[in-house]
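Risk mitigation, structural track. In case the binding assays with uracil fail to produce interpretable data, a predicted complex structure has been prepared as a fallback.
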Amino acid sequence: MRLNKYIAAAGICSRRKADELIAAGNVKLNGAVVRQMGIVVEDGDRVTVNGKLIEPAQSKVYVVLNKPLGYITTMEDDKGRATVAELVDDIPERLFPVGRLDYNTTGLLIMTNDGQLTYSLTHPKHEVWKTYVATVAGVLSDQKIAKLRKGVDIGGFVTSPARVKVIKQMPRHAVVEIQIHEGKNRQVRKMFSAVGNKVQTLERTAIGDVRLGRLMSGHYRKLTKEEIEYLKSL
Ligand code: URA
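Fallback model:
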């Protein structure tokens, strides 16, 4: 197996991150630093990352978590904030979040130790459609909806076409479903800001056809076999 894949398959990190670790000289194969991501690891080879020996691939675990407000999407936080890792800490395998949700965003977060799937789901070239439900301040006029659908400038980046549907318009706020297939930092919040409507609450309800459904806040469930196969096929 190629070195970058071997590291990702062992659940250490995504394949992209493995490439970075290799390029930075943090990876050794049988005691010698290697900088070729594609070098092949054979049975019995010893691979270390930052001096730590890697155990070859473990069994793959895939869960979907309903992330609550006020949790950060990392495995550790040096400022002592609550992390999504705490919500899956009864699972022995070390899981990583697939992409990120803001501290104040709730909803569907996939977590897995399958570095290959993480890599393919988050690669900018083939990002999948993600569905969010946002409550935004003010009135979302037809003109604004058209702008969001076409693409808006969120500061040096023009978003690609989005799917937008107003679920409910109230006098002072609107509930909107928005689907995007990009993953820029705080993208949905920035998109609504760009048309003058501040996001008040934001929840991710689906990634592709994998839905949050009735999963309670702070709880997780294992992905079904069908969902795993579907995500791998994307
Ligand atoms: N867009 C945002 O603005 N925040 C998220 O957490 C996800 C998408």
